[in-house]
């Protein structure tokens, strides 16, 4: 079992930045892919970014490409999401997730473990 706990959310003005963190516990996640997803009320959870086990292959949703950066520190069992140039449409509950496979994917259904989420609110 893997427990994931996100932190770093908050309220920021448009154009600002936030850095989300996700700490894993229970067992190491150094060999598995991880990702960030987000959800707003009434909508499906959507892919934001994913990264393979080594951190060498990040993938991004088109809506965040060039503004968000996903990274990981396997020694600390931690996943990060640096979010710059934030826009009001980035407002959502952000979730961290991990797979039981080394390869990253944008498919929500292929992630086994999920955190509780951290709220990001971007004011215009």
């Amino acid at each position: 079992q893997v427990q994931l706990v996100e932190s770093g959310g908050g309220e920021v003005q448009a154009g600002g930045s936030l850095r989300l963190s996700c700490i894993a516990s229970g067992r190491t996640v150094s060999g598995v892919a991880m990702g960030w997803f987000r959800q707003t009320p009434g909508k499906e959870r959507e892919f934001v970014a994913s990264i393979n086990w080594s951190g060498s292959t990040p993938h991004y949703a088109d809506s965040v490409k060039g503004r968000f950066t996903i990274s990981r520190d396997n020694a600390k069992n931690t996943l990060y999401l640096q979010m710059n140039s934030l826009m009001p449409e980035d407002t959502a509950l952000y979730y961290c997730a991990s797979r039981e496979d080394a390869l990253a994917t944008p498919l929500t259904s292929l992630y086994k473990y999920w955190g509780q989420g951290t709220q990001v609110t971007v004011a215009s």
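The first strand starts at residue 3 and ends at 7. The CA atoms of residues 17 and 84 lie 4 Å apart.
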